[in-house]
Give the backbone structure.
Amino acid sequence: MRMRKRHNLAPRMEACAAYLIEDPAALRGEWLAAFPEQNRLYVELGCGKGRFTVETAKAEPDAVIVAVEKVPDAMVLAMERARDAGLTNVRFLDFDAANLASIFAPEEIDRLFLNFSDPWPKSRDAKFRLTAPGFLRLYAELLPVGGQIWFKTDNGPLFAWSLEQLESEGWALSEVTDDLHKNGPTGVMTDYEAKFTAEGLKIHRLVATRTPETKTTAAGPVPRLRNAALGDARGSKKPRPPEDALRLVPATLPLCHAYFRQFQQSPELFEDPERCLPYVYDARKVDAWFAQRQARQNERRFYALLEEEPIGELVLKKIDPVQRRCELGICLVNDHYKNHGYGTAAERLALRLAFEELGMETVLADALLANTRSQRSLQKAGFRFVSEDEHFKYYRITREEFLARVGEKTT
Ligand SMILES: C[S@@+](CC[C@H](N)C(=O)[O-])C[C@H]1O[C@@H](n2cnc3c(N)ncnc32)[C@H](O)[C@@H]1O
């Protein structure tokens, strides 16, 4: 997690020192004895800012929640939340999960929570994933048979890879879902989960239970992790083609901010390139811009997401439900994503949505005369050139033409 350095970290930690365990090794084997009012021990690895920690502690007063986090700048917020809620059954450790065995005794933990763990996408870093076999064997040591890992993530490749590791390490899997909140929000959400869910992302979840067959550290050397890059959990390191890598999601204010934080102005968007001034992000202006655009009638706005990054903004505007016609506009966030096929792939996704979900019969588009890149992209997406004037070239595509193209691609 990229984390800003917090001002006044030391005094803020000091102000909630009662929640920090400075010498956790001293409690090894004695955790529940130190909390006589609680009867089970939950450990959360990588608690971040602690929304889940605090809400779980509130919901389960009979459990002790020990939250482990190696970035104190995040953890201080979690500690402040626990203090402000007046909780007595939660404690924090500024600690690396790799060393858990030095602070918990065998079978001492009843349940482990892994929420939105860092994916470490490169193959050579796979061993740092909190669901890597080395970690799973450590957890198997610290949980009794029947003890559980509760794992949630938004990251599909990490989830698929973790399922494979858990299976080959002999964990019993249950409650496996690729869309936890399909029927509405369920369970206690983490900070990341709340944000991703609001953005329309799907959340994966599973429960892994230790069985007598689960491998522990006694099982010998952990398997070597080969070809474990997460772009493709099955081992290929080839980047995914743009049309597979992109998703289109409805515009939200957090996505709009994420987009404008990365936005760079491009001369090709101006008829007079002299008028292209550098863009400077201003949160308040983005708020106002978003509110104004969302209030527009007959307009639907989307972001094209690459992984979780909004790399393009798309709009279907002047939606005419009688003529079944609308116009498509697109703006990629900066030059980094141009000339790689992302614009065309995003336009195709928007066309699919316009024809298949909005029931349009015709979609129109235009591009500045000088913007040959955009003109090429529209044509690759399937648009036909119709006409031009002294400013723009104009394009159109009908549902029939679009479906014929889709058919060609799939046959
Ligand atoms: C992506 S954040 C998720 C935070 C929180 N669980 C949530 O869902 O909102 C992952 C967190 O795990 C922490 N983390 C990653 N590896 C860790 C490790 N080996 N030991 C302790 N914390 C770790 C990171 O510092 C980061 O705060």
Observations:
- Residues 232-238 have pLDDT under 50 and may be disordered.
